């Protein structure tokens, strides 16, 4: 490993270091104890939605998180679901099964946390004092982990019905019923739970740490939260909303440096890049997107891409392309020649590799966290940024691992349209009909191998093509 | 603000204002008590605050109106956030504020209520900031304390805490017993979100923050900025002296934070305490000027050198950062510092200037010129509404890296010229023998 490569990897410390702490690449710390986040609430209150979204966010910022859904344990333990009768409070046999499932799930939670997991989200109704007391005794008293309850309280029948239609009627429980029957059965299921529902109570359960979210965030109560992770979770959950909206991601138009096969720098748009800027503005205006905001980086090529779009614009330094340090403005061929060790090292571990004097993808995720937080709070947004940055943002929305992230496809002159739906995001790639170079470098079999297309002789051809376009 | 007297409203107002100004949001506090002191003759006793004292009531209501007018005037003239620090303890008063601020002026309104029923905390507040207030300059401590407690009783008669049914259209936050429980109702917008997050993370448990630069480095000796060099001989002496100081003082649950650069890590190797590395604590990135001396920069990039002197806070090194960028990347550090107890932060000149500006409420003009000499521990102890500062210079010599604001932008101080630096290097060699 060259001395320069060594410098790019954070030095090992003589400190007490067990596991890496939250914010990626930035901090090394002795770890806090593992956390269990337990959901609370009647069915169709958004518990699974919150669980999955929270888990996606925590994993993205580098906290190893997993969701344990009690419904899945129940489906696994019993024969095919027949009707809401299973959930009657006086159905002793079913109750025994359900309690056993809860115990099994908790065991899995603790096993996972002992084996390196940092946060486990226990997604269940947990709607009685007794159940929560049992969880506390097991997780805190016996295992010594931290426990935080998140309760979703909702009495708006419209929201509840919308939830049921979006995610319940299509659940495995109802595959043999039609929509109408499923809806009614589920509403009766909720009634059974309501009989014994005991919302989190700060007098009765004064020793518990918890958060109550009312009507998707209109009001929030936080009780005895402690520690950095719980603080971040509270902040995140206070900022998300479920109002429908669309996020558009796009790279800048093709730039002069793209044509030369160079990375980084701050160049202008090429001729084709300017065509894309016009096409993008046309697309945006055609679709008449309500209250759209446009975000760009501070580099010229993104700003030039949006000059003709009629919408409030914001510039974010955090959206600037990854800093390639000593490799700025070089072609991949030049990097492979001049710094072969670094070039190979990057292929071996593209997510954590930090360019000397520059950044790693891991650093990018850390600096993009405020962007994600603000995106969660906003409505319709068009983000015009760069390849590495968009890969990080896309990984957040599509729940991609840190292995997949640096190899996500984000071609030039393509709008990526993200629409939140059910528990995830619908993705559409809209390629506008303007040609551009391909800057994607897939993971090579042998680290350090340079693809044909990045070699100088091949780039020259592309430049000639561009000159032809101008005439 | 909303709440009975001695519930920490002014503490929260000032702290919040300091934080918002530091992150670049132009904020000012308007304290109603000051308006009252200005409008009336010298304070005599708690009788002024009796609910049936009509004359006093009229004065107090007029003060509130005057203060609100000043608030709105300030917001119209470029202010971004105004903190109205008063008890605002009735529905009527809050309705009046809402009608004026929101309906008439079109601004956003957010109430922050501090609720506290722990008599110990209340008495501590009174002793720390009330008995020394201008109101009580002619009374002894005992009398002042009793008078203030009676003052609180008058307010209690008519106190109506924020009510989400009665005042369902208001945006507000209720903090119970200094943060044990927090209720947030209809908060909207980025600033309110940040305010809620900040107020949820602060605490009033006594603790101390120690700031220090790394020990003198090899590049310091050469007068070069940036880079990632090792400690010089004298720097290593400082590292030992620092560890000794820390161990002597037996600081409970101390945590040590450093950057990822070698010189800070080397400075703390012998300190027995859990350590954390923060990339955010790395020195300001001087871009194309990294590892150059000021003399070289003045020769090679004279325009940049002069531009930086004209506007040191916003000037960004080409391919590098500005102090303004630093503040942005240090915000998570500040947030985490607020949550922690005793912490020793070992970092760099520009970074410590930013942190110090936050704790000591320095403006962006003063920030880039704050003194943070090498081999000096800066000890910060929260007290009353601010921070007590102590500079503890450990007895090990080091170069002086401070460059004050020159009268003419672009002038290079004598001490940074090559001929003068050579002398310092010789001194170091002497030390080694």
UniProtKB/TrEMBL annotation, chain A:
<protein>
    <recommendedName>
        <fullName>6-phosphofructo-2-kinase domain-containing protein</fullName>
    </recommendedName>
</protein>
<dbReference type="InterPro" id="IPR013079">
    <property type="entry name" value="6Phosfructo_kin"/>
</dbReference>
<feature type="domain" description="6-phosphofructo-2-kinase">
    <location>
        <begin position="30"/>
        <end position="244"/>
    </location>
</feature>
<dbReference type="InterPro" id="IPR013078">
    <property type="entry name" value="His_Pase_superF_clade-1"/>
</dbReference>
<dbReference type="GO" id="GO:0006000">
    <property type="term" value="P:fructose metabolic process"/>
</dbReference>
<feature type="binding site">
    <location>
        <position position="301"/>
    </location>
    <ligand>
        <name>substrate</name>
    </ligand>
</feature>
<feature type="active site" description="Proton donor/acceptor">
    <location>
        <position position="321"/>
    </location>
</feature>
<keyword id="KW-0597">Phosphoprotein</keyword>
<keyword id="KW-0067">ATP-binding</keyword>
<dbReference type="GO" id="GO:0005524">
    <property type="term" value="F:ATP binding"/>
</dbReference>
<dbReference type="InterPro" id="IPR029033">
    <property type="entry name" value="His_PPase_superfam"/>
</dbReference>
<feature type="active site" description="Tele-phosphohistidine intermediate">
    <location>
        <position position="252"/>
    </location>
</feature>
<dbReference type="GO" id="GO:0006003">
    <property type="term" value="P:fructose 2,6-bisphosphate metabolic process"/>
</dbReference>
<dbReference type="InterPro" id="IPR003094">
    <property type="entry name" value="6Pfruct_kin"/>
</dbReference>
<keyword id="KW-0808">Transferase</keyword>
<feature type="binding site">
    <location>
        <begin position="251"/>
        <end position="258"/>
    </location>
    <ligand>
        <name>substrate</name>
    </ligand>
</feature>
<keyword id="KW-0378">Hydrolase</keyword>
<dbReference type="InterPro" id="IPR001345">
    <property type="entry name" value="PG/BPGM_mutase_AS"/>
</dbReference>
<dbReference type="GO" id="GO:0005829">
    <property type="term" value="C:cytosol"/>
</dbReference>
<dbReference type="Pfam" id="PF00300">
    <property type="entry name" value="His_Phos_1"/>
</dbReference>
<dbReference type="InterPro" id="IPR027417">
    <property type="entry name" value="P-loop_NTPase"/>
</dbReference>
<dbReference type="GO" id="GO:0003873">
    <property type="term" value="F:6-phosphofructo-2-kinase activity"/>
</dbReference>
From TrEMBL, chain B:
<keyword id="KW-0418">Kinase</keyword>
<dbReference type="Pfam" id="PF01591">
    <property type="entry name" value="6PF2K"/>
</dbReference>
<dbReference type="GO" id="GO:0003873">
    <property type="term" value="F:6-phosphofructo-2-kinase activity"/>
</dbReference>
<feature type="binding site">
    <location>
        <position position="263"/>
    </location>
    <ligand>
        <name>substrate</name>
    </ligand>
</feature>
<dbReference type="GO" id="GO:0004331">
    <property type="term" value="F:fructose-2,6-bisphosphate 2-phosphatase activity"/>
</dbReference>
<keyword id="KW-0808">Transferase</keyword>
<feature type="binding site">
    <location>
        <begin position="213"/>
        <end position="220"/>
    </location>
    <ligand>
        <name>substrate</name>
    </ligand>
</feature>
<dbReference type="InterPro" id="IPR013078">
    <property type="entry name" value="His_Pase_superF_clade-1"/>
</dbReference>
<feature type="domain" description="6-phosphofructo-2-kinase">
    <location>
        <begin position="1"/>
        <end position="206"/>
    </location>
</feature>
<dbReference type="GO" id="GO:0006000">
    <property type="term" value="P:fructose metabolic process"/>
</dbReference>
<feature type="active site" description="Proton donor/acceptor">
    <location>
        <position position="283"/>
    </location>
</feature>
<dbReference type="InterPro" id="IPR013079">
    <property type="entry name" value="6Phosfructo_kin"/>
</dbReference>
<keyword id="KW-0597">Phosphoprotein</keyword>
<protein>
    <recommendedName>
        <fullName>6-phosphofructo-2-kinase domain-containing protein</fullName>
    </recommendedName>
</protein>
<dbReference type="GO" id="GO:0006003">
    <property type="term" value="P:fructose 2,6-bisphosphate metabolic process"/>
</dbReference>
<dbReference type="GO" id="GO:0005829">
    <property type="term" value="C:cytosol"/>
</dbReference>
<comment type="similarity">
    <text>In the C-terminal section; belongs to the phosphoglycerate mutase family.</text>
</comment>
<keyword id="KW-0511">Multifunctional enzyme</keyword>
<dbReference type="Pfam" id="PF00300">
    <property type="entry name" value="His_Phos_1"/>
</dbReference>
<keyword id="KW-0067">ATP-binding</keyword>
<feature type="active site" description="Tele-phosphohistidine intermediate">
    <location>
        <position position="214"/>
    </location>
</feature>
<dbReference type="InterPro" id="IPR003094">
    <property type="entry name" value="6Pfruct_kin"/>
</dbReference>
């Amino acid at each position: 490993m060259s001395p320069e490569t060594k410098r790019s990897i954070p030095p090992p410390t003589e400190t007490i270091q067990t596991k890496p702490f939250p914010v990626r690449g930035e901090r090394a710390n002795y770890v806090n104890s593992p956390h269990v986040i337990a959901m609370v609430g009647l069915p169709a209150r958004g518990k699974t939605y919150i669980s999955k979204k929270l888990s996606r966010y925590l994993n993205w910022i580098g906290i190893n998180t997993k969701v344990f859904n009690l419904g899945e344990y129940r489906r696994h333990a019993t024969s095919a679901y027949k009707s809401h009768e299973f959930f009657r409070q006086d159905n002793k046999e079913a109750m025994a099964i359900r309690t056993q499932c809860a115990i099994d799930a908790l065991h899995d939670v603790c096993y996972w946390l002992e084996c390196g997991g940092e946060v486990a989200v226990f997604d269940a109704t947990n709607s009685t004092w007794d159940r929560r007391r049992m969880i506390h005794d097991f997780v805190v008293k016996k295992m010594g982990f931290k426990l935080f309850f998140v309760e979703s309280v909702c009495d708006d029948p419209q929201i509840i019905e919308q939830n049921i239609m979006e995610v319940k009627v299509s659940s495995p429980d109802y595959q043999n019923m039609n929509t109408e029957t499923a809806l009614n059965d589920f509403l009766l299921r909720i009634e059974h739970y309501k009989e014994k529902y005991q919302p989190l109570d700060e007098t009765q359960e004064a020793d518990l740490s918890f958060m109550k979210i009312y009507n998707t965030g209109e009001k929030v109560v936080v009780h005895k939260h402690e520690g950095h992770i719980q603080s971040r979770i509270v902040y995140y959950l206070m900022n998300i909303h479920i109002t429908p909206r669309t996020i558009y991601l796009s790279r800048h138009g093709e730039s002069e440096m793209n044509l030369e096969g160079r990375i980084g720098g701050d160049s202008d748009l090429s001729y084709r890049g300017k065509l894309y800027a016009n096409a993008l503005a046309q697309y945006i205006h055609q679709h008449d997107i309500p209250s759209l905001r446009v975000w760009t980086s501070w580099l010229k090529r993104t700003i030039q891409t949006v000059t003709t779009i009629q919408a409030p614009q914001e510039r974010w330094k955090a959206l600037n392309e990854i800093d390639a340090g000593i490799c700025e403005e070089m072609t991949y061929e030049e990097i492979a020649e001049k710094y072969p060790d670094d070039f190979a090292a990057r292929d071996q571990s593209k997510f954590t590799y930090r360019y000397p004097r520059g950044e790693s993808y891991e650093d990018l995720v850390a600096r993009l966290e405020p962007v994600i937080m603000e995106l969660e709070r906003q409505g319709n947004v068009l983000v015009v940024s760069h390849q590495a940055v968009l890969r990080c943002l896309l990984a957040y929305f599509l729940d991609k691992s840190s292995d997949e992230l640096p190899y996500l496809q984000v071609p030039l002159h393509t709008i990526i349209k993200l629409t939140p739906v059910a528990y995830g995001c619908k993705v559409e790639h809209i390629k506008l009909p303007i040609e551009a170079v391909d800057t994607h470098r897939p993971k090579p079999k042998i680290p350090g191998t340079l693809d044909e297309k990045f070699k100088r002789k091949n780039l020259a051809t592309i430049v000639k093509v561009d000159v032809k376009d101008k005439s």
